[in-house]
Amino acid sequence: MPRPILATVHTGALRHNLGIARERAPDARVWAVVKANAYGHGIERAFEGLRGADGFALLDLAEAERLRALDWRGPILLLEGAFEARDLELCSRLNLWHAVHCNEQIDWLAAHKTQQPHKVFLKLNSGMNRLGFTPAAYRTAWARLNALPQVEEIGHMTHFSDADGARGIAHQVALFEQATDDLPGERTLANSAAILRHARGALRGAGSLAADWVREGIALYGCAPDFPEHSAAHWGLRPTMTLSTRVIGVQRLQAGDTVGYGSTFTADGPMRIGVVACGYADGYPRHAPSGTPALVDGQRTRTLGRVSMDMLTVDLSGLPDAGIGSEVVLWGRAGSGALLPVDEVAHAAGTIAYELLCAVAPRVRFEAAD
Ligand SMILES: *Cc1c(COP(=O)(O)O)cnc(C)c1O
């Protein structure tokens, strides 16, 4: 028997979560962001649930090829554009839209002999200071692109740094509007947090800004971008991945006994603990401290002691029927229907759900279910 650890991808939940984006931004087309192998779900599995999207956004050319191999003929956007000049050949061949965020990418386009004119999204750095042209340089970049016969369509794009937090998006929206005001072309601004928190507010106020394309990632995968202020349930999102395994050992502890490497947990009385087939080599966060939630036989309990490479330990106090073979859900949906949002596990471990979903290790078996 293989190790009992399993990641189940819920394609019905992906479909449902896409529907939530459509409700929040009804006039927009949706780029389903499937970078990082669909946030760890696997492009091919996620595609089953997300084929109703208007387009797919990612950054790896090999992932774009995988989407085309699934017979997806619709739009695909490379969020970071070409990494070197010869990437443009593949962009032509696969008919990819691509971001243009620096002058070098415009030089490559100018030198590119293409059969097929390119569709690009020019990227504005409106304050994130990651990729993009400054507002002062934006128009010159647009004029250069616009003069190229290789380029057929120029859209406009920016990315928010604080859509999930108190600072919000208004300052970036204002810069974007100034920079792009009288330029033709489609617009794309919103990530998940902006779709959920601002599509009915600041973005709607900005006229067509919500109305072209939104770029939705984490919310498609059932997580709240603004946890713990809001939960996935608050936004009506359903978990799209369950990481489950089983209890493979049971120990009885007395007061003063410790658990695991470094003896970081000490029992203060008699208790029963379960040893679980999941460790950091499966992608479970080693930083998750004692007390991180888990479900055993659908009941909520907590981890104890340090996570090791292949195992971790859970408290079975109050679970007299649990033992070898009991179902353990590290995040997602138990057989009983009980839920443990990955947001809660990530929060306990001092990180975000994005990181946990992306980090599920190749040795974990994946399965798609509806
Ligand atoms: C990852 C990414 C997104 C999606 O962000 P979420 O917070 O997962 O919705 C949108 N736009 C760009 C440019 C990205 O890199």
UniProtKB/TrEMBL annotation:
UniProt GO molecular function: alanine racemase activity; pyridoxal phosphate binding
Top-level taxon: Bacteria
Entry-linked SMART domains: Ala_racemase_C
PROSITE patterns: ALANINE_RACEMASE
SUPFAM superfamilies in the cross-refs: Alanine racemase C-terminal domain-like, PLP-binding barrel
Alphabetical list of HAMAP family matching this protein: Ala_racemase
Task performed by this protein: Catalyzes the interconversion of L-alanine and D-alanine. May also act on other amino acids.
NCBIfam families in alphabetical order: alr
Family indicated by similarity: Belongs to the alanine racemase family.
Protein name stated in the entry: Alanine racemase
Source organism: Hydrogenophaga borbori
Highest classification ranks of the organism: Bacteria, Pseudomonadati, Pseudomonadota, Betaproteobacteria, Burkholderiales
